[in-house]
Write a structure and sequence with these properties.
The chain has 178 residues and is of the alpha/beta class. The chain has a domain of 122 residues: Rossmann fold. Helix content is 32%, strand content 34%. It has six helices and nine strands; from the N terminus they run αββααβαββββαβαβ. The strands form two sheets. A seven-stranded mixed sheet has the order 5-6-4-3-7-8-9, sandwiched between helices. Strands 1-2 form a two-stranded antiparallel ribbon. It catalyses: AMP + diphosphate = 5-phospho-alpha-D-ribose 1-diphosphate + adenine. Belongs to the purine/pyrimidine phosphoribosyltransferase family. GO terms for molecular function: adenine binding; adenine phosphoribosyltransferase activity; AMP binding. Homodimer.
Length: 178
C-alpha cells in the first residue's frame, strides 16, 4: 500500500474542534485492517534500527499504535496518561497548552534508568504534549531515541520543536495546513 493510499484512509473533519481547523481523524485508518497493518509495518521499519528497550505511547491513540508497534518489535509497552488515570504511585509533568495547562503521568519506576525508549503518538501538531512526555521520560533517566507519529502537521512546527529540544522525530504521513 502506498503513502497516498494510507493518507486517503485518514478522514478530514472540517471545523473541528473549532472553526478553521481541519481535524485529521485516524480512526478511519485504524478501522481498515490493511491500512493499520501497513501503518504499523512502516512505523516498525523506522523504529527497528533504533532497537529501543521500550515503546512509550501517549494517551489515547498513542496507546493503540504504540502497543501494536511494541508487539511487532517484540518490546514492552508503557503508557503515558493524563492525570489521575493510573493506580499506584506516579511521576508526572505539568505543561502549558494554548489555553491553560495539563499534566501527563506514568507509573513510578515503570521505565528503568538508562532505558532507551521510542515515544509514539498518532499525530504531532505543535508538539507540546510530545515535548512534555519526552521531558518526563528524561527525568526518569530514559534516553528518548525518537518520537514517532503516524501523522505530522508540519505547518504547526511540532517535529521542528522536538528536534530543537534534541529529540529526533519522524512521521509516516504529512498533511499541509492545520
Amino acid at each position: 500500500m502506498s503513502i497516498d493510499s494510507l493518507t486517503a484512509l485518514v478522514r478530514t473533519i472540517p471545523d473541528f474542534p473549532k472553526p478553521g481547523i481541519q481535524f485529521r481523524d485516524i480512526t478511519t485508518l485504524l478501522a481498515d485492517a490493511g491500512g493499520l497493518r501497513e501503518l504499523v509495518d512502516r512505523m516498525a521499519d523506522v523504529a527497528r534500527p533504533l532497537d529501543p528497550d521500550l515503546i512509550v505511547g501517549i494517551e489515547a491513540r498513542g496507546f493503540i499504535l504504540g502497543a501494536a508497534l511494541a508487539l511487532s518489535l517484540g518490546k514492552g509497552f508503557v503508557p503515558v496518561r493524563k492525570a489521575g488515570k493510573l493506580p499506584g504511585r506516579t511521576v508526572g509533568i505539568d505543561y502549558v497548552l494554548e489555553y491553560g495547562t495539563d499534566r501527563l503521568e506514568m507509573h513510578e519506576g515503570q521505565v528503568p534508568d538508562g532505558a532507551r525508549v521510542l515515544l509514539v503518538d498518532d499525530l504531532i501538531a505543535t508538539g507540546g504534549t510530545a515535548l512534555a512526555a519526552a521531558q518526563l521520560l528524561r527525568e526518569q533517566g530514559a534516553s528518548v531515541l525518537m518520537a514517532l507519529f503516524a501523522i505530522d502537521l508540519p505547518d504547526l512546527g511540532g517535529i521542528a520543536a522536538l528536534e530543537a529540544d534534541g529529540v529526533a522525530a519522524a512521521a509516516i504521513i504529512a498533511f499541509d495546513g492545520d
